[in-house]
Each structure stands twice: as structure tokens, then as C-alpha cells.
Specification:
The chain is mostly beta strands. The protein contains 3 helices and 22 strands. The protein has an 8-stranded antiparallel sheet, covered by helices on one side. A 7-stranded antiparallel sheet has the order 7-6-14-10-11-12-13, with no helix packed on it. A hairpin with a 5-residue loop joins strand 10 and strand 11. The protein starts with a helix and ends in a 23-residue tail after the last strand.
Length: 327
């Protein structure tokens, strides 16, 4: 309760100080199909630049799919071009040493990568469920907290609430009986924390063990988020940060924006220098203030219905959590 009150007070103070964001539809400049719109946002105080894709899932010509790179890591433009995507944002977290994804990637019931199942903070182990956006066979989106009980699809369980972790108080290991299996899945991508739940700002930062991770709760950073509205329109957002022309967002501000854009469910993805958005082979935002694209192992792409990436076997490498450069 105290944590939620802090979010509400922080959000109220932020809204009182900040000017509104002015949004402009720039879809025509990128020659996007009618089902996919691109908006550019700008604010003078505090300085901010942001962009979001609005994807109408009622047009079944296009789908949203996660991709795990077949060549290790790639900048978003060569990555999206190689898979033939209409548009894309960067995906989940990864090991900066070897480029291994530490966020789930599931495509047509093939588990290509897994969310972290436990984290160590100051010598204490915290079992953890983490956020996961999924798309059913009919394209219906959902955001749940998930846990992998094995490497296969039948070991992937979703939960309606996150593991009740808090600093110094680890939660029990999740129990399959408290969750449920996915009956089918077109695709899904992990990340976290969740930002909006049931139409309200609800940030599962502590529950997903993001403290001491480099993600930052009330620090302005470049951010990437994904969510969906009540009419199954998907919002894919990127905010530039750490620049004179764009300070970035806190997680609270990010959650508030996703809610303002109509999302009833939303979650955070990898941020910092990884935050990238491409449309029709063009880098739209300016990560780290320029056109350099940090190589990433995963993206969330708007693609043609017949598109599907090749499945890859899940490895057994040691992994570390990353959320940003230096984390």
C-alpha cells in the first residue's frame, strides 16, 4: 500500500510539473500500411522526444511477432530488414557479454529463450515471475507474469499476479497449481516490469526484482514499452533520453503515458541505449543521441501474416541480468 501511494504521489507531482506531449501522425512519411500508424511526440519542458506505433489487430493482414536473432545481436534496422518487418521495436533484456537473451522468446510453442527464474541480490536468492506479452493464435494480446518450470512449452506457466518479492523478503518458488498453462501461442516476448494492469498504473518493480538492476524506478532514462487497448490495438513506444533534447522517462511517467494512450495492459522492455524503433528500414528515434544502433538479440516486429522466424534450440548458457549499459 505504501509503495502504491508513493507511485500516486510521484505521478501527481510529475504531471503538475510537466507540459503535455504534442503528438503528430507521421505514418505517411514512412509509407506504412493503413493498419499501422506511427506517431511522433515532443515536449519542450522537460524536453522530450517519443514515438509510438499503433497497430490495429483487426486487420489480419499483419501480425506482431517476436524474433530472436539467428546471427547473435543486430541493430534494429538490419535486424528488421532481414526478417522483412514493416516496423519493430527492441525486445527484452540480454547478457551484454555474449548477447544471450535473458527474456523469454516463444514462437508457435517453441521456447527459444527464457525469462530469468531467480535473481541474487546481496547474497539472497529471489525466485521471480516476470512480465510476458503474448499473442494467441487469433492474435489476441495478453500480458501475464510467467515462470518456466522446464525448457519446453508445457513447462511455461502464466500467473495473474507476480511473485510477492520485496527487498530482503524473497517469495517462495512459484507453484504450477497457482498458475495455468498456455493452451496455444502464436508468439510471446518477456521483459518487465509490468506498468499498467486492468487499466490502472500498477508497476511490479519490486515483485519482479528490478532493484539494483540498472533499470531505475524514478530515474529518467530512455525507455521502450508495449501494451494494448480494450479494442486490441497494440501500442509500441520508444522514448529517447539522456540527451539535452530529450531527458527520458521514469517508470512511473512511462506507465502514465501508456495509460494515457489507452492501454489497459502494458509492460516495460529493455531500455537505455537499446531503445530503438524502426519503420520500413528507417531508424526513427535517436538512441544515445545519434544513429548508432546497439546490437540486440530480440525485437518485437509488425510483420506480414505469413512471416515466421526459424526456431532455434534453447541453450544452457550461464546468464546474467542486464537492463542497460553497465548494468
Amino acid at each position: 500500500m505504501r509503495y502504491l501511494l508513493y507511485i500516486q504521489l510521484f505521478l501527481l507531482s510529475s504531471l503538475l510539473l510537466a507540459q503535455p506531449i504534442t503528438w503528430t501522425d507521421i505514418s505517411a512519411s514512412q509509407n506504412l500500411p493503413a493498419a499501422v500508424k506511427l506517431f511522433a511526440g515532443e515536449r519542450s519542458s522537460p524536453a522530450l522526444k517519443a514515438w509510438y506505433l499503433e497497430v490495429d489487430l483487426s486487420d489480419t493482414t499483419y501480425v506482431i511477432l517476436p524474433y530472436l536473432s539467428t546471427v547473435g545481436t543486430e541493430g534494429i534496422v538490419p535486424f528488421s530488414n532481414r526478417v522483412g518487418a514493416v516496423a519493430a521495436i527492441n525486445g527484452g533484456y540480454f547478457n551484454v557479454v555474449n548477447g544471450t537473451s535473458v527474456s523469454s522468446v516463444v514462437v508457435r510453442e517453441d521456447v527459444l529463450a527464457q525469462n530469468l527464474s531467480a535473481l541474487n541480490r546481496n547474497g539472497t536468492t529471489y525466485p521471480v515471475t516476470r512480465s510476458f506479452i503474448s499473442f494467441a493464435d487469433d492474435g489476441t494480446p495478453a500480458i501475464d507474469w510467467i515462470y518456466h518450470f522446464n525448457n519446453a512449452f508445457d513447462g511455461l506457466y502464466k500467473f495473474s499476479s507476480p511473485t510477492p518479492n520485496s527487498p530482503g523478503n524473497p517469495a517462495p518458488v512459484p507453484n504450477p497449481s497457482d498458475g495455468s498453462m498456455f493452451s496455444s501461442l502464436r508468439g510471446g516476448l518477456g521483459g518487465g516490469p509490468s506498468l499498467v494492469k486492468n487499466g490502472a498504473v500498477d508497476i511490479s518493480f519490486n515483485e519482479e526484482v528490478f532493484w539494483d538492476s540498472g533499470i531505475g524506478f524514478d530515474v529518467e532514462n530512455p525507455r521502450t514499452a508495449v501494451g494494448f487497448t480494450a479494442n486490441n490495438t497494440v501500442i509500441m513506444l520508444v522514448v529517447d533520453g539522456r540527451q539535452p533534447i530529450s531527458s527520458g522517462f521514469t517508470l512511473v511517467s512511462l506507465a502514465a503515458l501508456m495509460k494515457d494512450l489507452g492501454c489497459i495492459e502494458a509492460m516495460n522492455l529493455d531500455g537505455g541505449g537499446s531503445s530503438q524503433l524502426a519503420a520500413n528500414g528507417t531508424l526513427i528515434n535517436r538512441p544515445e543521441g545519434g544513429t548508432f544502433q546497439r546490437p540486440v538479440p530480440t525485437i518485437l516486429a509488425v510483420d506480414h501474416r505469413e512471416s515466421l522466424p526459424d526456431a532455434q534450440p534453447l541453450g544452457n548458457e550461464d546468464i546474467i541480468e542486464t537492463g542497460d549499459s553497465g548494468a
